[in-house]
Protein: Sulfhydryl oxidase
Organism: Fundulus heteroclitus
Amino acid sequence: PAAEAGLYTASDQIVLLSEENVGSVLVNNSAAVVAEFYASWCGHCISFSPNYKKLAMDIKEWKPAVNMAAVDCAAEENRNLCKDYKITGYPTVKFFHAYSTPESSGVPYRARDVRVLRQLIIDSLESHGEPWPPACPPLEPTSEAEIDNFFKTNSAQHLALIFEDAKSYVGREVTLDLLQFENITVRRVLNTEDGLVAKLGVTDFPSCYLYYPDGSFTRLRVRHFTPPPPTTPPCWRAFCSISIGHFCSMLGDGETTLKVLHSERLQAHSKMYAKYFPGRPMVMNLLRSLNSWLQNQTADHISYEAFKERVDNTAQVPDAALPEGVRWVGCQGSQPHFRRYPCGVWTLFHVLTVQANNTGGSDPQEVLKSMRNYVHNFFGCRYCAEHFENMVKEGMEGVTTLPYAVLWLWSRHNQVNNRIAGALSEDPLFPKIQWPSPETCPSCHTVTHNGEHGWNYEQVLPFLGSYFSSSRILPDYLE
Ligand code: FAD
């Protein structure tokens, strides 16, 4: 089930989006919302999830002004939601303004680093047009004139001033950190505000002052960082927030949407599946029937809706069906977010290259081209797709025989294994190794004349041929 496979829980200070709550979380909300659209099978999403959690914990005090949310697009019940928001790659992080309309599709953030994301949120809030999220305090720098009038026009009992240069985010971060303290206002003052800088005798930027109604002030010595070091370590902000907050509490004051499909590519895919996919008879009937319909299409493009309708209709025909539901067997992970779909993609294409080789296909690159198209157009992990495309560009053209196609895919898969070994997406029970291991296929390994490891390609090829052969597929797997 999706809830089990998802990467977040409510205790992460992240709202779990669903069809039920999306209309109130992303639409017409008095808070702005940062939402992550991810797929629980996507390695980059898994690697990014600790950062997203850290960000959520980091800015949980900002909640009345900006909230955080996430949705697992791999879960069947969220598919339409992600489609409505035109999500084509994972993870996608978007900023939704307060009081967004149902048509709003959010502003994408490309950054993945916690500090950069926090700063992007501040930039988005600062440039937030009307209607402004009511709980968000002003973030722009203040002036001497404004400060002079402050206590005449505000009920807050304490005014904290953060002196800093224009590029620094500390002032705005502290402002948001303390937004829930009713009796304290934080404003940033730029180092170019000469009058105030001279008046308070400020020499360090950033530095932190409490300013009183009678014009007197106290510098808050931020422990360990007085004077602050030239670069601002993130903890300076925490110390500053805590110092101000603590100070005030002592005084008693006290969070796939492709609409059209390219006919020619779809025809190529479909032809290839109908020829090589070693499916059960019911599934093969469906694939063949779909294939003959597709080969008769003459328009350049086919709408996704028309294609889907055709698949659904074909599945109604007696003796033609797709399996119902999704149950992972060979690609089952030790936890619900491991392996599954990407493992299925690799396995499928290894099987297809082997089948093409066994049955004597005419074009050595037929299966690889199909995989390239599939990954390019439909594989939600966009970084994976980019890496794969780079590998394709580096050498797929040289594949001139069917056995070479089998070996080419095997060696590129090993390149990926090598690159992502040890990543958070790695299932501890299925470590990323240079595959097959010497235990699985002793004869595949050899030692070269200078003592290094080498592959014995003459043995690897038949090993792959038998490992991915149709006879090893269990057509009627029952638990
Ligand atoms: P998988 O790597 O999915 O392998 C499935 C099965 O194939 C293994 O259990 C094993 O039996 C067999 N196998 C393993 N190696 C080979 C091989 N060399 N040749 C033949 N069979 C083999 N994840 C990222 O984090 N970053 C990426 O950039 C990335 N790029 C990807 C690109 C593509 C095209 C695909 C399909 C997936 C990509 N992934 C990426 C996902 C990642 O490769 C794994 O699919 C995922 O982490 C699940 O791993 P797994 O343990 O189930 O084994």
